[in-house]
């Protein structure tokens, strides 16, 4: 922890631009209505916001089949420990930077200011990557919910034949209330976050207790020593284990979501770092506990992996309860929390787009930087996210491959977005001119924790573009790597065309709220 002198000096750590330039930017923001947002989020709401947004055990419960095919139980259980530690170190590294500069822009702002050179270039490129990652994350949540509903319909009605347009309509049905609810997010915040947090914990307890009491038991050897490497086509055990990490690592990405609400959090310099770390640690623990329970109560693994519903979680609870009604309830529990996370996701990404627009990072920045005087939120930025999800849902009708390709870049892009600011901050930390720290600092362990976080990110990023099935076809190809590359190329083109003149390296716009 830093002392009062460090806190005071940290207020001006990024004030590198000339006063006249800052005044011009402020005048521009006033013309567009893109001023500051009101601070109204307290510590409890900020912590619950990040805690619910990750919803890690719920996410794992609906996608764990991918790890069963690659790596199996060994990848799931040991990978969960590995990812929990790595993600926590990333969260601690981000929390330290948030303590210095708690900003909505977060990663792109820190990259722009901590980079030893080419600050505008790194800031703009980072901004494009982070914005696209979060917009795709917003589309992936309605898609996950639609998949759950379609799977339950198949489970309950033998004559039901799913159509692609069913999923599209379901995505719209889930998105519209969450989109509309964000206009009154300030009023809904306390109730929504409290209910969501209680559901996140109580549904976990109920789900784990039910499986522990009623489900058939797997052997200890199956849970702790089974390594699957010959089912998906990958015959190398190490490769299969690495690919199997994707499930448990993807579910622990996105803890930067609360960072993008920083301008609305009271005493953000201390509360935002706490929220980042708490949400990551708590979700890591819940995820690990759920995975152990799930593996010990998996039942007939052949039935689970070949279920006609396409959602193995349904088969797990059906084998445990022998009741369709009970199975529907337990699957719905996970869906409820995931849906709550959609409200938080839309709020977070809309603020990120707004912040990037304030710094002229996007085309038509004046339009997306507008803050509605009544709702006190960036309505145009929120509208952009809504339009994006609507269009992506339409793509699903024409091609599920194209749809899945677009949303597949989320986790990979997010982990890359964590890498750059941590790297630049580490270089700043060990330089002759170290940063002035905020109230939270990693102290003598900072270098080691930053290095571990960077190594963990590099290791995960290596595996994320791998295809999960062999032989590779147009349908099962992993498009995450090429699409992230496409976003980076697009950012480079923007830089060359107008971005280098348009984008402004961010500076503090008002006195930080301590």
Summarize the structure in words.
Its main location: membrane. This is Amino acid transporter. Keywords: Membrane, Transmembrane, Transmembrane helix, Transport. One of its GO terms (cellular component) is membrane. InterPro entries: AA/rel_permease1. The protein has a single domain, classed as Amino acid/polyamine transporter I, CATH 1.20.1740.10. The protein contains 22 helices and no strands. Helix 3 packs across helix 16. By secondary structure, the chain is mainly alpha-helical. The N terminus is likely disordered. It is 70% helix and 0% strand. The two termini are 14 Å apart.
Summary?
This protein is mostly helical and 514 residues long.
Helix percentage? over 70%
CATH fold-type name: Amino acid/polyamine transporter I
Major sheet description: none
CA gyration radius, whole angstroms: 22 Å
Number of strands: 0
User: Could you tell me how far the N terminus lies from the C terminus, measured between alpha carbons in angstroms?
Assistant: 14 Å
Subcellular location: Membrane
InterPro entries: AA/rel_permease1
Organism: Zopfia rhizophila CBS 207.26
Transmembrane segments: 40-64, 76-95, 127-155, 167-185, 192-214, 234-255, 276-298, 329-356, 377-397, 403-427, 447-466, 478-497
What layout of secondary structure does this protein have?
Blueprint: H1 4-10, H2 19-32, H3 43-54, H4 56-63, H5 65-69, H6 72-100, H7 107-114, H8 119-156, H9 164-181, H10 185-214, H11 220-225, H12 237-250, H13 268-296, H14 301-305, H15 312-321, H16 324-358, H17 365-368, H18 379-398, H19 400-407, H20 409-429, H21 446-463, H22 480-502
Helix pairs in contact: 3-10, 3-13, 3-16, 4-13, 4-16, 6-12, 6-13, 6-20, 6-21, 7-8, 7-20, 8-9, 8-16, 8-18, 8-20, 8-22, 9-16, 9-18, 10-13, 10-16, 15-16, 16-18, 18-19, 20-21, 20-22
């Amino acid at each position: 922890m830093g002392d009062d002198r460090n806190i005071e000096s940290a207020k001006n750590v990024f004030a590198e631009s000339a006063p006249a330039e800052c005044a011009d930017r402020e005048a521009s923001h006033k013309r567009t209505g893109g001023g500051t947002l009101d601070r109204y989020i307290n510590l409890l709401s900020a912590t619950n916001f990040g805690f619910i947004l990750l919803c890690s055990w719920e996410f794992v419960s609906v996608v764990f089949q991918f790890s069963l095919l690659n790596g199996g139980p060994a990848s799931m259980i040991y990978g969960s420990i590995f990812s929990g530690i790595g993600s926590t170190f990333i969260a601690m590294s981000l929390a330290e930077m948030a303590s210095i500069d708690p900003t909505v822009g977060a990663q792109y702002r820190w990259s722009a200011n901590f980079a030893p050179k080419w600050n505008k270039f790194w800031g703009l490129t980072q901004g494009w990557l982070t914005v696209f990652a979060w917009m795709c994350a917003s589309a992936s949540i309605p898609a996950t919910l639609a998949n759950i509903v379609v799977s339950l319909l198949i489970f309950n009605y033998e004559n039901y034949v799913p159509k692609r347009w069913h999923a599209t309509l379901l995505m719209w049905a889930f998105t519209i209330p969450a989109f509309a609810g964000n206009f009154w997010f300030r009023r809904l915040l306390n109730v929504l976050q409290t209910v969501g947090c209680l559901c996140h914990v109580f549904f976990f307890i109920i789900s784990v207790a039910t499986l522990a009491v009623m489900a058939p038991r797997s052997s200890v050897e199956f849970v702790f020593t089974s390594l699957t490497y010959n089912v998906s086509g990958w015959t190398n055990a190490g490769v299969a284990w690495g690919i199997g990490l994707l499930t448990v690592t993807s579910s622990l990405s996105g803890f930067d979501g609360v960072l993008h609400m920083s301008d609305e959090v009271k005493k953000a310099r201390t509360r935002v770092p706490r929220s980042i770390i708490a949400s990551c640690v708590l979700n890591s623990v819940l995820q690990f506990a759920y995975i152990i329970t799930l593996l010990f109560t998996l039942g007939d693994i052949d039935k689970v992996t070949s279920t006609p519903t396409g959602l193995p979680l349904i088969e797990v609870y059906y084998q445990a309860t022998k009741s369709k009604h009970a199975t529907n309830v337990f699957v719905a529990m996970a869906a409820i929390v995931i849906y709550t996370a959609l409200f938080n996701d839309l709020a977070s990404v809309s603020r990120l787009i707004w912040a990037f627009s304030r710094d002229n990072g996007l085309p038509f920045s004046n339009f997306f930087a507008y803050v509605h005087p009544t709702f006190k939120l960036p309505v145009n930025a929120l509208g952009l996210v809504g339009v994006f999800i609507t269009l992506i849902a339409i793509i699903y009708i024409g091609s599920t491959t194209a749809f899945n390709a677009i949303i597949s870049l989320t986790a990979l892009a997010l982990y890359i977005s964590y890498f750059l600011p941590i790297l630049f901050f580490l270089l700043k930390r060990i330089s002759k001119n170290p940063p002035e720290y905020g109230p939270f600092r990693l102290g003598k362990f900072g270098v080691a924790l930053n290095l571990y976080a960077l190594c963990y990110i590099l290791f995960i990023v290596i595996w994320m573009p791998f295809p999960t099935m062999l032989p590779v076809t147009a349908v099962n190809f992993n498009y995450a790597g090429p699409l992230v590359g496409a976003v980076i190329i697009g950012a480079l083109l923007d830089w060359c065309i107008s971005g280098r003149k348009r984008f402004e390296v961010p500076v503090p716009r008002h006195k930080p709220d301590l």
